[in-house]
Write a structure and sequence with these properties.
The chain is mainly alpha-helical and 115 residues long. Helix content is 49%, strand content 9%. It is built from 4 helices and 3 strands; from the N terminus they run H-E-H-H-E-E-H. The protein has a 3-stranded antiparallel sheet with strand order 1-3-2.
């Protein structure tokens, strides 16, 4: 038996949590890397402030969604702290992505969007 709750019990995620978790889904990143990844992926429409990001990271860490990660390469700046998803965080990210996909399908079915 697992200590973790059902991933769906964490939904819906905030925009901040979803974007941060998506940014580190394929590789650990440090805070500035997360800020740049989110800005690039959203064509600059979502610009994270450092204080907001680190408060969100602390909360997500406390919730067991992400954790600190070792630096991915030798000689990296030792002051930078890297983050990665936990297994539970990956499950929550998947559940939220499926929830959003289902909602998007409803919008398509109602001819709100055409794609």
């Amino acid at each position: 038996m697992t200590d973790q709750p059902d991933p769906r019990s964490m939904l819906p995620l905030t925009h901040l949590s979803y974007h941060v978790m998506l940014a580190i889904a394929d590789a650990p990143l440090h805070g500035y890397g997360i800020i740049k990844e989110v800005a690039a992926r959203t064509d600059g429409t979502m610009e994270l402030e450092a204080g907001t990001l680190y408060a969100g990271i602390k909360r997500m860490n406390d919730e067991g969604l992400l954790e600190g990660a070792p630096q991915p390469q030798e000689g990296a700046d030792s002051r930078r702290r890297y983050y990665r998803l936990t297994d539970f965080g990956r499950d929550v990210l998947g559940a939220e992505s499926q929830r959003l996909a289902n909602l998007l399908q409803v919008a398509r079915d109602k001819n709100v969007i055409h794609a």
